Amino acid sequence: MPDELASSVGDGEDDERLSKDVIFELLKNRRRREVLAYLLEAEETVTLGELAEQIAAWENDTDVNALSSDQRKRVYVALYQTHLPKMDDAGIVEYDQDRGLISLSDNADLLMMYLDTESHQQDRWDRWYGALSAIGAVLVGGAFLGAPVLSAIPTIGLAGAILVALCGLSITHAVANRKQERTVDGKLDRIE
């Protein structure tokens, strides 16, 4: 796999393509997925020590302070020797082995779209439509029941305003979906 990994990443700086085989090879290991999750949450360069401690804590279902030196060392060595060099070769992380510094790289977004992370979840448009429906129901109901301010507005005008708001929300939703579709398509174009 190392030869396949190296050959599928490309030789040039401008080549940001990865094969699906490489992506899935990288993601099949839980520790590598945890590296991505930790770096995504940190949003900055981290040290190998802190990364290894947190992953060891997750694996042992304990707090970082409760880890034994063997638990830390086992994860540290695996990250140092195997996982981080492989991720660095694929352009997923930037790994300075001499200084022990790790950060996300440009190709990380190709893997993030396969992970279930809070920051990459879909927007909840159902909430906007639900809120607009509730507001519309309250306004129309208030007009029918003779609420002082609402009964002064013609029902057709109130219904028209709600319809315009619904159309505006639908157009906004369609534009947002199209933008997201182009973003995903752009990422998929970088996958062989």
UniProtKB/TrEMBL annotation:
- Span-the-membrane segments of this chain are 128-150, 156-176
The chain positions of domain DUF7344 read: 24-102
Q: Does the keyword Mitochondrion apply?
A: no
**Could you tell me the keywords of this UniProt record?**
Membrane, Transmembrane, Transmembrane helix
Q: Per its UniProt entry, which superkingdom is the organism in?
A: Archaea
Any keyword Transcription regulation? no
Q: Which InterPro entries match?
A: DUF7344, WH-like_DNA-bd_sf
The name of this protein is: DUF7344 domain-containing protein
Organism of derivation: Natronobacterium lacisalsi AJ5
